[in-house]
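For the sake of transparency, this paper describes our internal protein records without simplification. Because each token names a local backbone shape, the row as a whole describes the fold. One such record is reproduced below, unchanged from the form in which we store it.
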Amino acid sequence: MTIQPLRHVFHALIAGCVLALASASVTPASADTKLKMVLNWKYQGPQGMFFLAEDLGYFKAEGLDVTMDQGNGSGAAVPLVANGTYDVGFGDINALIEMAARKPEDAPIAIAVLYNEPPFTIAVKADSPIKTPQDLVGKTLGGPANDGALKLFPAFCNIIKIDCSKISITNLAPNLREQMLMQGQVDGVFGYINTIRFSARNMGLDETAVRFIPYGDYGLDLYSNSIIVSKKLVAENPSALQGFLRAINKGMIAAIKDPDAAIASVAKREPLIKKALDRALFDATLKFEMNHPEMTKIGLGDVDPDRLKRSIDTLVSVNTLPRTPAMSEIFTPAFLPPLADRWKTAF
């Protein structure tokens, strides 16, 4: 099968789903529809919006039985949805763009973009001689294999005009990232700004012990974590996706209005969390990862088509990807709740 016919088939499929949704009522999806969802990381504060949706009965009201498993990095969610292990993932849309460019027949699709600010960074110790990205040459950086920032590092190198091959990369366990940085075993680490910042705080370190080199400061103005679903689910049960996003949307709004309830929902799944720390992480996620100015116009979950197109073009160019996916292969707004129902207030 060639790529061009496949693209036409998938575009027709999405169009058919949109027409079906337009004519459908907003009654809940069929009872007992089971969905398996993989999260971006271990159970922690920002995921409270998903767990609160379950605890408040929003999934059940839509006729959905949702199982949410811990993840191992935002990049890891994409192939797990693509290979059918999970129906839904909370993962990095940039990893999805790369898969769609390389293996369009396998790639899933995003139906809601929740992290609309680029969180990707390289963290170094406060007293590190690394002051600019150019200072990374000759150094050793570490990160979990499926970390979104690590996967985007070639694009970052291309943007800032440094040779990635002159920087050593070592894979490390997520729970050892900040420890290895502070012990000097690596010169810098990849990750999300808030994840690293609060992991350091959990170790008893002051936030000023770590400095950040954010990708967004150097031209990578990318979207990030999104609700990603399989094309099989799009084709076979679009009403379940519409109901799923209604429930998630209600859960997010409930969590924003009552963050302590969201943290309590996380603690039900992971009793060992430090509630005050996870509450602070949740607040920081809203402020720094879900707070792009465009949200006040298009609502949380949707994208600016021009910005998404620039993101796709940037990743294709700097990573020398074999094709440029159409935006409709990467994201569809067909299943989002109406704009009037989505969160549109800056944090």
User: Anything to note?
Assistant: The chain has two domains: 3-117+223-341, 120-218. The longest helix spans residues 3-23.
